[in-house]
Amino acid sequence: MSAYSFIGSDYDLPEVHNTKEKMITVKEAIELGIKAHEFMPWEKMNQEDKVMVFESEEDLGELMITKGYDGDEDARQHTQKPFIYMVEFRYTDARGKQLLEYLKENLREGYSLELWSIWLGDKEKITPLRCSYKELSLDHIKQMYEWGHGKGFQPSGMIIEK
Question: Cβ distance 145 to 87 under 8 Å?
């Protein structure tokens, strides 16, 4: 199974893209001396095709929040919110703080946002934690996304109200 994280909202939210992602042509990658993957050598690609490049592997894990995804069907088992945003990142405290700030900045008075982390295809009913905008902390985010310390991934949900 694959883990899937998303935000459910009653209104449109801004997307967050990985600012460390660069798009260059295959020709530029060759000129920069970037090594191609063994399964797709540069010679087999059109020189004008675009490829995604990052300075380091760690940059791949930056926070991204994008509208919609194929996992929306799974998301609908947990939320009735009309807007679904996929959340992707590799947890660090800095990225956790970024997600925390995003949620607080985009939660409107009188509304709630839902944050879920689930297994795709799993039908298990999850009882979400409810918390107020003022109570929401990095500890809540860390609990959902820091999968280390031997506990592994734990499906969870949170409803944040303002």
Answer: no
Same domain for 27 and 76, yes or no, is no
* pLDDT score at 116: 95
**Residue 106 Cα to chain centre, angstroms:** 16
Structural domain for 72, as ranges: 3-19+60-161
Give the torsion sign (CA, 7, 13, 18, 23).
Answer: positive
Rounded Cα distance, 98 and 101, in Å: 5
Shared-domain flag, residues 11 and 35: no
Write out pLDDT tens, residues 81-95: 999 999 999 899 999
Residues 91 and 29 in one domain: no
pLDDT recorded at residue 6: 95
């959902």: which residue's tokens?
144
Residue 100's pLDDT is 97
Q: Residues in the chain with pLDDT < 70?
A: 19-21, 23-24, 52-60, 69-71, 148-151
Tokens representing 142 are: 């860390």
How many domains does the chain contain in total?
A: 2
Q: What is the predicted pLDDT for the residue at 70?
A: 59
CB atoms within 10 A of CB 87: 22
At 146, give phi and psi (nearest 5°): -85, 100
3-state secondary structure of 13: coil
